[in-house]
Amino acid sequence: MTEVTRVLLLLRFLWTLTLSRGDADVSCVFMQSCVLPCSFQSDTDVIIHWIQTPGDLHVHSYYQNQDQLGNQHQNFRGRTSLFKEQISGGNASLQLTGVRVQDQGGYKCHTSTITGNKDGVIQLKVDAPVRKIHIEQVGNRITCSSQGIYPKPELTWSTDPPSSSKSTITVHPTEQQLYNISSSLILSDPVPDVIYSCRISTRTNTRRTTLRNTASINSSSSDTTLSCATSNSPPLSLIWRFNHSQIILSQSSDGHAVSKEWRQQVKSVSETGGLTLHQLSAEHQGTYTCEFTNKEETHISNTVLRTERGGERSSSSAAVTGLVFAAILVLAAGVTGLVIYRKKR
Ligand SMILES: *[C@@H]1O[C@H](CO)[C@@H](O)[C@H](O)[C@H]1NC(C)=O
Ligand SMILES: *[C@@H]1O[C@H](CO)[C@@H](O)[C@H](O)[C@H]1NC(C)=O
Ligand SMILES: *[C@@H]1O[C@H](CO)[C@@H](O)[C@H](O)[C@H]1NC(C)=O
Ligand SMILES: *[C@@H]1O[C@H](CO)[C@@H](O)[C@H](O)[C@H]1NC(C)=O
């Protein structure tokens, strides 16, 4: 074999490789807009037809220097456009808005000018990535769920330290052909400080949410620190809640806010979300929940705080307040009495 034939063989091999690679794939995100690329050798008398295959549905046509939508299939009504100013430069790309799962399939781009025709096919794929994962515990059942995912997601549980717990997974197709997924884990014997982790993944992404119930702590007379996540990266968002409802503080890229009711108690927040409280009294006894979110993960941590000493102090201070109030009343009554007495005179 000569050098030349070798090179020719290699070229032929590369050529078949490019051909057999087949159609170009375009990934579109559910409900967003997407561009299907197509180009041609520019010339006059441009004709463009975009056809969805199989089914040969008319998506968009253009000739005589304007859009021709008379035969457009209703699936595409009001959702397609060409880049008009760039057609003369050989750009026949199609923009599709509000992408839905039904849009998946092949799209043939047929172009023709005075000099010749060209056909190309694009495969459109739709993705609806996993967004928020909800996790909640009721009794000894932890439920993890997420909605509006495509293609069909997978869900796995894990615990740290490892343990064997039973779980069932249900996947519901929605009207928009997306998937809702949910799974419940039944805890055989709930012990504190176990991390329950729920991971949901689909073609384009994976998200994980963890739930941890730490051992309850007693507030100390000075500062009490509640830990949040074990992650080293700072959070994209952080929320501390009291008794599952009241927000103590929230922090995101937009800033940091401590609710009015908690300004006295919040002393500081650490890099990893740990909360230091002070001046706690009996009314601050309850469950503190931290929700820490970074790029791929959300960590939820519940801590029960007891405030025994604070309780005593606050009841004795209530007694003192009562006494002072009574004294003021007596004084006020006395003064009023004096005024009336003077007026009568
Ligand atoms: C056509 O123009 C659009 C808009 O400027 C651009 O996004 C796209 O990449 C172009 N396509 C080609 C094939 O040149
Ligand atoms: C899927 O989740 C969405 C959002 O919570 C809800 O509106 C819808 O009813 C759910 N569909 C099914 C089939 O479960
Ligand atoms: C908290 O207080 C309770 C009741 O007084 C006690 O049983 C428990 O050991 C204390 N826990 C810690 C961590 O100090
Ligand atoms: C918070 O929850 C704890 C335990 O359920 C309860 O004892 C306490 O009264 C609650 N506090 C408030 C202010 O609701």
Automatic annotation (TrEMBL):
Record bears the keyword Membrane: yes
Keywords of the record: Cell membrane, Disulfide bond, Glycoprotein, Immunoglobulin domain, Membrane, Receptor, Signal, Transmembrane, Transmembrane helix
Membrane topology: Single-pass type I membrane protein
Any single biological process term in GO: negative regulation of T cell proliferation
Pfam families: C2-set_3 (PF22705), Ig_3 (PF13927), V-set (PF07686)
CDD domains membership: Ig (cd00096)
Location within or outside the cell: Cell membrane
Span of the signal peptide: 1-20
GO cellular component: external side of plasma membrane
Residue intervals of the Ig-like domain: 36-127, 192-301
Superkingdom per UniProt: Eukaryota
Designated name of the protein: Ig-like domain-containing protein
